[in-house]
């Protein structure tokens, strides 16, 4: 049996027009046959009309539009984000990260000695015997590090030039006021 | 007979450099924006300042409006976020459904109505006074749904919630509004029956 609040909720959905087609037909049938549902429906319909007709809007001061227009006169419309965010670059960065992650997984799984796993755990090699000097003297590692440094410098340069441009624009607007 | 230009037509004009057309958009939506903000802040001065901020933000990022949603939905989303940012900055309490003091606050607000005043209130005043007794979240949902003609999906976008959550909130808000009216406006309600 429906509880009163469930009935109310279903009827509000019906009045708001968000009930499914099946639910709608069920409610319509209930409204035809059940007086309790009919009574609640009338009550809800009345409340709905009251809300639709009675909510007042507050008004700001008479000068509001003028104030806004005076305020926006100081600004320019900023270019759309889509014009300066290149999706290809974002996809490119994502692809690089994904490739690195996949390559790491492939490398790790390819080097796992499955015969010894689970036989006591621990690292299957001696960390102290790793020759870090050999790793970091590799040409590829050096190239990778250099590339990262260069990308970092490019981003820093871009960030500083955008900041400089913004400051310049701000100065121009301030002087034109 | 002249028809009013649509929001999108006005936006195109503004983006082409006709800044004055933005005034038309401000006139169209200033009351809605102001009312939504007044649900959160008590001072009209603060509400006006935030409203102005909303329109300036909307103007500056107008090029980002792609027309995927209604302009009003986009504007109310800016309104909602600006309002919350302002409250956080001012470290005021953002009243939410979960806060226990919401109803205590509502009771305090009610103390301003004398019996005579209540009797004189029209149907419209009764509904608006009862809305003022609700929590800001409840009042905002009701205003957006009934006055700003936003669908549940659009309100979900504005408030950053799931559509189902908004549906539940709207239902609860109406129930609470009914409770408030039954408690504080008995005479008016009986007149309506």
In short:
The complex is a heterodimer of chains A (177) and B (193). With 177 residues, chain A is an all-alpha fold.
Write structural notes for this entry.
The complex is a heterodimer of chains A (177) and B (193). The longest helix of chain A has 38 residues, at 139-176. Chain A is mostly helical and 177 residues long. In chain A, helix 1 (4-16) packs across helix 3 (35-54). Helix content of chain A is 72%, strand content 0%. Chain B has 193 residues and is an all-alpha fold. Chain B folds into 2 domains: 7-89, Rna Polymerase Sigma Factor, Chain: A (Orthogonal Bundle), CATH 1.10.1740; 101-192, Orthogonal Bundle (Arc Repressor Mutant, subunit A). Chain B has helices at 7-15, 21-38, 44-60, 71-89, 101-110, 115-120, 123-132, 136-147, 152-159, 163-184, 186-192. The longest helix of chain B has 22 residues, at 163-184. Chain B is elongated. Classes of the chains: A mainly alpha (177), B mainly alpha (193). The interface between A and B is large, with 37 and 45 residues.
| Cα shape of chain B | elongated
| Total number of beta strands of chain A | 0
Question: What distance separates the N and C termini of chain A?
Answer: 70 Å
Low-confidence stretches of chain A: none
Order of helices and strands of chain B: HHHHHHHHHHH
What is the averaged pLDDT score of chain A? 82
Give the count of helical stretches of chain B.
11
Q: What global shape of chain A is seen?
A: flat
In CATH terms, the superfamily of the largest domain in chain B is Winged helix-like DNA-binding domain superfamily/Winged helix DNA-binding domain
Percent in strands of chain A: under 5%
Beta-strand segment tally of chain B: 0
Integer tally of domains of chain A: 2
Question: Helicity level of chain B, as a percent range?
Answer: over 70%
For the CA atoms, what is the radius of gyration of chain A?
34 Å
> What is the name of the CATH class of the largest domain in chain B?
Mainly Alpha
